[in-house]
Design brief:
The structure holds two protein chains of two kinds. By secondary structure, chain A is mainly β. Chain A is about 5% helix and about 50% strand. Chain A has one domain. Chain B is mainly beta. Classes of the chains: A mainly beta, B mainly beta. Chain B: It comes from Novosphingobium mangrovi (ex Huang et al. 2023).
Chain lengths: ~280, ~170
């Protein structure tokens, strides 16, 4: 697997839901590809990235294109092109030069820390290196609380016939392995997705999908399901469109030294076509 | 009007032959009416014709598109025929079954027995999908039976991008 995991402090590039556990009104980080099912010898897609409440309207913060990884159908690394960041959104292109299914997105790991020193509440600085946490917390600190974070935000596009290589799980954090190919989704067939935590089936996880275009509706179109023992969830799309799929869990299976809790997040943008 | 030549489909069958089924000698004639549309900007539609068998198996019979565009640029829009692209187009070569787009009016497509080679006798959906630049998309399906004893006709009509479609299966 070639999606690089950048160890970094959580920045605005991550869903704020991870930064603020339990915050129900967190903003949504999203990547919006221009299309996901393509034909031809080669093709270009252009992608918007932003953080906002309303899908898919860039009206709050741009999502940094830094750290966006591209995995080509053969598993090798690709690259984004023409990246630019505006006030409310960033944009980049991907030149699809290989037939098959591509994965594009971020896989990030980071940590938040807070502690008390002489009765005063302190936070670890932004940009703190998670592997150096022990040196960043001064002697005499009390009430040390370190929270590890891992999140993915990705989408898939297919030029020509679909392939499976990019679905190979990494075995860390929360991952989605499609049962229904993500570029094979139509509104009259259920989408089936398997979720894994550290490579093992993630049972009992709530998965939510929200349809874009909320500005033109009084009620958001949203559907959700819970994963079964095999980690699989079935979603019956109410209509075609671009969906923002999200799952989050909390546990204490930490890997960052000193961390006592872990927050895992997964986001995918899925295009459901008319049959 | 340009004519489309139809070549023998080779090596791209997605419907597996069953050992028990005898070779079919059926041919299919398909009359497709492309409607004349009073629109400011008209482009001839891309059209795909395919057979769908049980279990979602599919075989492409013909594709009309901007085949002669420089650098294969016409292939960029094949996926606009979304239903065909998903069920058959993206997973098989269309080299032997493709031709140029056709003008509005009645068009006839003759499917030789060789293009149906390997298909077991039985019930199929004959599907015709049209997608037009700055226009719409439509899929029309007709039930057809391969391996029947008599000449069988089926008829269906589109509402927007396709007119009357008549298929004639001749044993």
């Amino acid at each position: 697997m070639k999606l690089r995991s950048a160890i970094s402090a959580i920045s605005l590039a991550l869903p704020l839901a991870l930064a603020l556990p339990g915050a129900a009104d967190a903003h949504r980080a999203w990547l919006l590809p221009s299309e996901t099912v393509l034909s031809g010898d080669d093709a270009w897609i252009t992608v918007d990235g932003a953080i906002s409440n309303d899908l898919f309207y860039p009206n709050h913060h741009a999502l940094s294109p830094e750290g966006i990884a591209v995995e080509r159908p053969d598993g090798s690394d690709g690259a984004i092109e023409n990246a630019a960041t505006g006030r409310y959104r960033s944009t980049f292109d991907v030149h699809l030069t290989q037939q098959g299914t591509w994965k594009i997105g971020t896989a990030r790991t980071g940590a938040f820390g807070r502690y008390k020193l002489n009765g005063e509440e302190k936070r670890l600085p932004r940009g703190a290196d998670a592997s150096r946490l022990d040196t960043l917390i001064p002697a005499g600190a009390t009430d040390v609380r370190i929270r590890e974070m891992q999140s993915r935000n990705e989408f898939f596009v297919t030029l020509g016939a679909p392939t499976q290589t990019v679905f190979e799980p990494q075995g860390t954090g929360l991952e989605m392995v499609p049962v229904t190919h993500p570029n094979d989704l139509v509104s009259d067939e259920d989408g089936v997705f398997r979720f894994l935590v550290d490579g093992k089936p993630a049972a009992g996880i709530k998965v939510t999908a929200v349809l874009g275009g909320s500005r033109y509706r009084d009620t958001p179109v949203q559907l959700s399901g819970t994963t079964d023992a095999a980690g699989e969830v079935h979603l019956a799309w109410p209509e075609p469109g671009m969906y923002w799929l999200e799952a989050e869990i909390e546990d204490n299976h930490t890997s960052v030294p000193g961390a006592t809790e872990r927050g895992l997040g997964y986001v995918a943008t899925l295009e459901v076509l008319a049959p | 009007m340009r004519t489309t030549s139809l070549f023998v489909l080779t090596g791209s069958a997605t419907v597996a032959a069953t050992a028990a089924s005898p070779a079919l000698a059926d041919t299919i004639t398909i009359d497709i009416t492309i409607p004349r549309l009073a629109v400011a900007e008209y482009h001839r539609p891309y059209v795909a014709v395919w057979l769908e068998g049980p279990g979602g198996t599919a075989r492409t019979l013909s594709v009309w598109y901007d085949k002669d565009k420089r650098g294969g640029e016409g292939r960029k829009w094949l996926s606009d025929m979304r239903t065909w692209w998903r069920k058959a187009g993206r997973s098989a070569s269309i080299d032997g079954v493709s031709g140029a787009t056709r003008a509005p009016g009645p068009q006839t497509l003759s499917i030789p027995a060789s293009a149906l080679r390997g298909l077991p006798a039985g019930q199929y959906q004959l599907c015709v999908e049209a997608a037009r630049e700055v226009g719409g998309r439509e899929v029309v399906k007709l039930p057809v039976t391969l391996g029947g004893a008599k000449v069988a006709k089926a008829r269906a009509s589109g509402k927007s991008e396709l007119g009357t479609i008549v298929s004639t299966v001749t044993p």
